[in-house]
Design goal:
It contains eleven helices and nine strands. It is α/β, with parallel strands linked by helices and 334 residues long. The longest helix is centred in the C-terminal third of the chain and has 19 residues.
């Protein structure tokens, strides 16, 4: 599954292979050893800013729970950002099972850690479509966006699907705008936290939805602009609290740090350093198919960090760009 994920396929849609069930215990032990399974704690007690990685509704809510609890022991001296963007919402991924939603809301109300949540409650393979519809209807009302009264939701077919939508997903059928991850993130902030937070609204450009790299780029530019404006005086060193969750922490931290470095280089600022400290809660309920896919993505990012050039065109390797008509070597039997 690290290599057969297809374009527009979400992680919850990955299929479980027989070996994942047969060797699940051994695989999870190995995942712990290489840092894809356990909680990653903050390295510092004081940070200049906090960046919360965007995600589906349950992902953002889970990260808000964890961040709110972290504020008991770490200090954020500057702004807190949610790195969101103009990804259209859809019911299958942004709906939340009622028991899971209720449990997360209880954690927020009691300022508990997400570690107190049972794995089977936290991990859901697919969202609750009907709950997702109900949420998006309420969100549309709160955001001043109208849904088609005759057909409030739409599921496109491959032959009639406009960009940036994807066939066979249940989208709100809006008449005066689009319900996006940014609008959802703002709604979650208003509902569940009093901590002042700014949202990074990354555009959906060139048929590519916002991702870790593009949202981190925009967050870095936001910080660099404030440095240029003199908001931090003569301060030269900055540390960012970067909130994610497992198994994504290391890979997203690498990608975010790279985006920051590129933005800094382009800014022509001298003597400035920005360090991204990746933090995230354990996800004991994550399926091996998800962890294995993330492992493949992490290996690729680590390879980029070596500075070596691949002997193959990277577009032939990435799930989002490679041709699935090409013949590849069969996966060996274990």
């Amino acid at each position: 599954n690290a290599y057969d994920r297809t374009k527009d396929q979400e992680r919850y849609q990955l299929q479980t292979s027989n070996w994942m069930e047969q060797y699940s215990k051994e695989y999870l032990e190995a995942a712990k050893d290489i840092g894809l399974h356990h909680r990653i704690a903050p390295s510092y007690s004081d940070y200049d800013e906090a960046w919360i990685a965007g995600a589906s509704r349950i992902g953002v809510l889970g990260r808000l729970v964890d961040f709110n609890h972290a504020l008991k022991s770490v200090k954020i001296n500057g702004q807190t950002l949610i790195l969101a963007g103009q990804r259209p919402l859809w019911a299958e991924i942004d709906g939340i099972l009622p028991d899971t939603l209720s449990a997360l809301e209880t954690l927020i109300a009691n300022k508990q850690t997400i570690d107190d949540l049972a794995p089977e409650v936290w991990q859901q393979q697919t969202g609750d479509v009907e709950e997702g519809k109900t949420y998006m209807q309420g969100l549309a009302n709160r955001a001043g966006i109208k849904l088609d009264s005759a057909a409030p939701f739409i599921k496109y077919t491959p032959s009639n699907c406009p960009k940036p939508f994807v066939p066979n997903r249940t989208y709100p059928n809006t008449t005066n705008g689009t319900l996006t991850e940014t609008i959802m993130a703002n709604d979650l902030l208003n509902s569940y936290t009093a901590h002042k937070t700014t949202i990074i609204d990354t555009e959906h450009a060139d048929d590519k939805r916002p991702d870790t790299a593009t949202t981190a780029r925009d967050a870095a530019i936001h910080l660099i602009d404030r440095i240029k404006n003199g908001d931090f005086g003569d301060k030269k060193e900055f540390v960012i609290y970067f909130q994610s969750n497992q198994p994504f922490v290391e890979r997203q931290t690498i990608v975010t740090q790279r985006a920051v470095n590129v933005a800094l280089e382009k800014s022509n600022l001298s003597g400035i350093t920005i360090k991204v400290d990746g933090v995230g809660f354990a996800n004991p309920g994550a399926p091996i198919s998800m962890i294995h896919s993330e492992l493949g993505a992490l290996i690729y990012e680590k390879y980029i960090e070596t500075g070596e050039k691949s002997t193959r065109n990277v577009d032939d390797l990435l799930f989002s760009t490679r041709s699935h008509d090409q013949v590849t070597e069969a996966v060996p039997e274990l």
